[in-house]
Write a structure and sequence with these properties.
11 strands; 235 residues
Length: 235
């Protein structure tokens, strides 16, 4: 696989990319009820990629209605942009006009990140590790993970944020020097995923802090991660 150009490569393997919803008729009530994370809603019919587990049940029940493409560019900087609507071929992207000026000024050349697994299941964490292996080599773009938040330009959060991880996450954030970015990586981090609504979670951290980047996927592919971070840096 030739991935020298991470922006233009056919995503390999069995990973599901951005879904497309046609205008074909389907049992929308069935699709909504079968979705394990409540990502599908009606009126209008749409899929929330911030909740989607990418299990493919919807496409299995209604292949004429829903198709998962190989488009791995699934990052946005507005939560509402993760809603995929019926009859629209929506390309997801980070809006450069919405990126904070200090982020573009300071992190355009390099970006050092501290990864926090806030009760993650290790799937997103594995893909973040893979993003910097010899095949994908994210560090060639100046994007690297560091061991201490004091050496970081921001945080990459994985997992649904459990009660036990809420305070450590906040401490890590406070120890990261300003200005700093917050990246939510994967369905669990963005919405809680299959754990949404559990009393074991404490997601209040997200109520009081601005999120700079939402990387959809369950887990996100390394190409999804790399492209999202590059867009956040204005590249």
């Amino acid at each position: 696989l030739d991935i020298r150009d991470v922006r233009n490569v056919e995503e390999p393997g069995i990973n599901k990319g951005r879904p497309v919803i046609s205008a074909e008729k389907a049992d929308e009530a069935l699709l909504e009820g079968e979705c394990p994370t409540g990502a599908i809603s009606r009126g209008p019919f749409c899929i929330d990629l911030g909740k989607c587990a990418f299990c493919g049940l919807c496409a299995f029940h209604a292949p004429q209605k829903i198709t998962f493409t190989k488009d791995y560019k699934l990052s946005v900087n507005r939560r509402e942009d993760l809603l995929i609507h019926e009859g629209m071929d929506q390309r997801l992207k980070v809006e450069k006009s919405l990126i904070r000026p200090e982020v573009l000024k300071l992190f355009g050349g390099s970006l050092k990140l501290r990864q926090v697994s806030a009760a993650g299941d290790n799937s997103a964490e594995w893909e973040l590790n893979a993003a910097n292996n010899v095949q994908f080599d994210m560090s060639r773009f100046g994007i690297e993970f560091v061991a201490s938040p004091r050496h970081a330009d921001g945080l990459v959060i994985t997992g649904p944020i459990s009660e036990n991880m809420a305070e450590p996450l906040n401490i890590c954030y406070q120890d990261t020097p300003d200005p700093k970015v917050i990246v939510l990586c994967g369905t669990d981090a963005i919405s809680g995923g299959i754990f949404a609504g559990s009393p074991a979670l404490n997601r209040t951290f997200l109520d009081s802090h601005h999120v700079d980047l939402f990387i959809a996927g369950n887990p996100p592919h390394p190409l999804t991660v790399i492209n999202g971070l590059l867009e956040l840096c204005g590249r």
